[in-house]
Write a structure and sequence with these properties.
The chain is of the alpha+beta class. Helices cover 16% and strands 30% of the residues. Bound molecules: zinc ion.
């Protein structure tokens, strides 16, 4: 089964199987959605690629951007959220 979605995150740097015309293989993820926005790290060109296309062309992750480190729980950050009084209005 290879239908598992790849969890792209903003700031990820990915290496694709085919090079950009400029010769670069590495791209930074700058936009998420049905189409993934990528900036070529070599020439700076920005493109939109359908997520499925990107998954097919993806060779490797070089850097994980927003990836949560294993063991980091949401509870820690939840505790630092400013507490807003619900009866504000
Ligand atoms: Zn390029």
């Amino acid at each position: 089964m290879n239908s598992e979605p790849v969890p792209f995150a903003l700031g990820d740097v990915v290496r694709l199987k085919k090079p950009h015309p400029c010769g670069g293989y590495d791209w930074t993820v700058v936009r998420l959605g049905a189409d993934i926005g990528l900036t070529c790290t070599t020439c700076g060109r920005r493109v939109l690629l359908p997520r499925r296309d990107l998954e097919r062309r993806l060779k490797a992750f070089l850097v994980r951007g927003d990836a949560q480190p294993e063991g980091a729980s949401c509870e820690a950050s939840a505790a630092t959220w400013p507490v807003v009084d619900a009866a504000e209005s």
